Amino acid sequence: MPNYYDGTKLLSMKDLDGQKPEIYICTANRTGGKTTYFNRYVTNRYLKHKEKFMLIYRFKYELDAIASKFFKDIGELFFPGYTMTSKSCAKGIYHELFLNNISCGYAVALNSADQLKKLSHLFSDVQRMLFDEFQSEQNQYCTDEIRKFISLHTTVARGQGEMVRYVPVIMVANPVSIINPYYTKLRISERLKSDTKFLKGNGFVLEQGYVSGAGDAQESSAFNKAFAGDEYINYAAQGVYLNDSKSFIEKMHGVSTYICTIKFEGKEYSIREYSEQGIIYCDTSVDASFKTKIVVSSEDHEVNYLMLRKNDLFILNLRYLFEKGCFRFKDLQCKRAILAMISY
Question: What is the pLDDT at residue 299?
Fold first, then answer.
C-alpha cells in the first residue's frame, strides 16, 4: 500500500506563541498526495460539520472547470455517490461550488481581490480557505500578491457579528523557491534549512515533508530514468527546491570589488564581488562614498538612493546568481536583506 501524505500532525500543531495558528503551510515532493489529502479534508469538514470552504487560485482563468479540477479524483476515491458542480457568479469574479446541488463553498482568484472586497457579505459563511500551488514553478505571481492575499483573507474573515473571524488558510505547494513572496514576507527564508521538518512562526506553522513512496515511484519511472540528473527530476522526486541552491552564512577574505550599497529597514548593507571565488557577498561594512545606493522598500527611500523597481536588470542578475548558489552572507540580517531584495 503506497505511503501517501498525512496532514494530521500539521493541523494539530500550535504556533510559536502556543496559540492555534491561522496559516498552515505544507510543502512536499510531487505526487505525494498532499493536494488529495487537503481537498478531501475540506470536503469532509463540509459534509460532517457544514463548514463551507474557499478555494484560492492566482488568476481568473484558473477558475474554468473548477468543480472537475477540484473534485474529480477525490470524488472517485472517497465520495462515491456525490457530484460537484459550479456556477460562475458576478461576471466570473467568483464561482460557487455545489455538492449534490447544495452550496458547499466558493472558488476565487487572488488577482480579483479588489473586486471581491465589494462582495464580502457573500463569504461570511466560509470557515476555511485552501490555496494549492501557492508557489509558482514559473515564478508568475500577481502584482502585489501578498497585499492581495491579505486583502482576500480580510474580505472573508468578517461578518456573523464579528469584526474579525478565525478563518484558517491551508497553503500547499511543491518546494519551488525559498525566495517565494510568502516565505520572504513571513521570514521563513532565513530560518528554513534542508533538514527542517516543522517550523513554527507567529500565527503560522509549516511542514517541509518528503513522501518516500512518491520519491521512489518517481525515481523508478522509466521516463524519469531517461532524464536522470535533470534538476526538475530532482525537484519532483527528491523534494529539493527547484529554483534555489544552498546559500551560506560565512566570512569572506581576499580582494573584492564593491558593487553597491543597499538599504533595508533603516540599515545599510554592502554587496561585493569576490571574483576569484565566484562569490557575491553581502555584509554590513559599507563604503559611504560609493555612489550606487539602492533602497529595498519605499519606506527607506531618501535622497541619493535609487528605488528598487528602477534596477530590474540588476535584480534579475542577482537573482540568477542566488539561484546558482553564488551568494554568501555575513549574518542572518544580511541574508534577510538580500532575500527581500530579490524576492519574486
Answer: 59
Q: Which of 196, 215, 238 is the last residue of a domain?
A: 238
Instruction: Let me know the angle formed at the C-alpha of 7 by 180 and 38, rounded to the nearest 5 degrees.
Output: 75
Asked whether residue 14 falls in the same domain as residue 125, the answer is yes
User: Of 32-36, 82-86, 224-228, where does the model show the most confidence?
Assistant: 82-86
Same domain? 35 vs 76:
yes
DSSP bridge partners of 289: none
- Contacts of residue 133, defined as CB under 8 A and 6 or more positions apart, other chains included, come to 58, 172, 173, 174
Angle between helices 231-238 and 212-220 (to 10 degrees): 140
| Residue where a domain stops, chosen among 238, 271, 294 | 238
- Per residue, what are the HEC states of 279-335? EEEEECCCCCCCCCEEECCHHHCCCCCEEHHHHHHHHHHHHHHHHCCCEEECCHHHH
The whole-number pLDDT of residue 160 equals 73
Estimate to the nearest angstrom the gap between the alpha carbon of 200 and the chain centroid. Answer: 15
Write the DSSP assignment of 197-208 as a string of letters: -EEEETTEEEEE
What is the distance between the terminal CA atoms of the chain, rounded to a whole angstrom? 39
Give the pLDDT confidence score for residue 1 in this predicted structure: 45
Is there a domain that residue 214 lies in? yes
Q: Look up cell 486583502; give the residue.
A: 151
pLDDT of 48 higher than 50:
yes
Same domain? 56 vs 162: yes
Interatomic CA distance for residues 114 and 111, integer angstroms: 8
Between these two residues, 250 and 117, which has the higher pLDDT value? Answer: 117
Give the pLDDT mean for 219-233.
Answer: 65
CA distances from 148 to 59, 102, 309 (A): 12, 29, 19
Range of the domain at 199: 8-238
In a domain, residue 117? The reply is yes
pLDDT at 214: 45
Domain count, the chain: 2
Strand ranges, E, within 68-190? 84-89, 94-99, 102-109, 126-132, 169-173
